[in-house]
Design a protein that fits this description.
45% helix; Rossmann fold; alpha/beta; 9 helices
Length: 311
């Protein structure tokens, strides 16, 4: 007897392989998947402006990338001894004004170059709750811990999110019409908004993705909420997926999107990674020396097939 429900997910095309390049944008769940891609040596470019939670923040970023926008002094502000940009995460904030501007513009250039060669774009939407800076009337990607009285918090409607998603798709098509667009909803619950408010937010995101008619959808949120509906699959904060849950969702993702050849290479890369992480009892032993030689041979064989691989 099966004691849990399993979400059926059909295989998707075009497949991801070791010749693919993935652009990852969105909430902290992108960071989880990005770490898996990094470990398995899949080429990717991940959240160049840091974590984005709301689709409008992603749309603004891609508009900047496609239009060749340049950031200047009026685009940043000084607060708590650091320069910040409302369109980027605080991870890019800097005590030096010129340096943050250089970083922002460099990230735009790097994204533009990578996007032209990207095979798949994975976008994870985190929340439909949007923050507008009252002084300018503009939506922000990050509040940078300014007092909440400076912002208006609103729940974006399904129609508004659909508009953002269509613009996102349009921006991507301008630079790379061949890139496959994959949407997913973050399984991380934003309970600071409230339990009911979080569900309302996720519902609007899900409805918008399915109504926009752009890209394909991978059900990471549904897997977490249904297949893994037990608190043992959550981290200590009871909000984020545990490592076991992340591993499971990753497994479902590669079953859906990765080619058979890529699955074989994934296993080979993982074997090498585990070997490199192994700590021997005696590093000077003949057995360990032989073990390292075998790893080097495996690495060389993989690089013959995939020259970009580096361990």
């Amino acid at each position: 007897m099966e004691f849990r429900t399993s979400i059926p997910i059909k295989e998707e095309q075009p497949k991801i392989g070791y010749d693919s390049k993935l652009l990852l944008l969105g909430s902290c769940f992108v960071e989880n998947i990005g770490a898996k891609l990094e470990y398995h040596k899949i080429r990717k470019f991940q959240n160049p402006f840091g974590i984005f939670f709301h689709p409008q923040a992603i749309e603004t970023f891609l508009e900047r990338v496609v239009s060749g926008y340049r950031y200047f002094e009026e685009d940043v502000f000084f607060y708590n001894e650091r320069w910040h940009c409302f369109e980027a995460h605080s991870a890019l904030s800097d005590p030096d004004k010129d340096r943050i501007l250089d970083t922002l513009n460099q990230k735009l250039d790097e994204t533009r170059g990578f996007l032209k060669e990207t095979s798949h774009v994975v976008i994870t939407l985190g929340t439909a709750w949007n923050y507008t800076f009252l002084e300018t009337g503009l939506s922000v990607a990050n509040c940078h811990k300014l007092p909440q009285k400076n912002f208006r918090k609103e729940l974006s409607s399904v129609a508004s999110i659909i508009h953002d998603l269509k613009k996102i798709s349009g921006h991507l098509e301008q630079l790379n019409s061949k890139a496959e667009l994959i949407f997913t909803i973050s399984p991380i619950r934003h309970l600071r908004d409230g339990f009911v408010e979080n569900q309302h937010s996720k519902s609007n995101l899900i409805s918008a993705v399915h109504s926009a008619g752009k890209g394909t959808y991978f059900p990471s949120y549904e897997i977490m909420m249904d297949e893994l509906r037990d608190y043992r699959f959550y981290a200590e904060d009871m909000l984020h997926p545990s490592p076991v849950a992340i591993d499971y969702i990753w497994k479902r993702f590669i079953e859906t999107w990765f080619s058979e050849d890529a699955m074989i290479t994934l296993a080979e890369v993982e074997n090498i990674q585990k070997g490199l992480a192994h700590r021997p009892f005696n590093p000077e032993s003949e057995a360990h020396s032989s073990f390292l030689k075998k790893l080097k041979i495996q690495e060389a064989r993989l690089r013959e097939k995939h020259p970009h691989l580096k361990f």
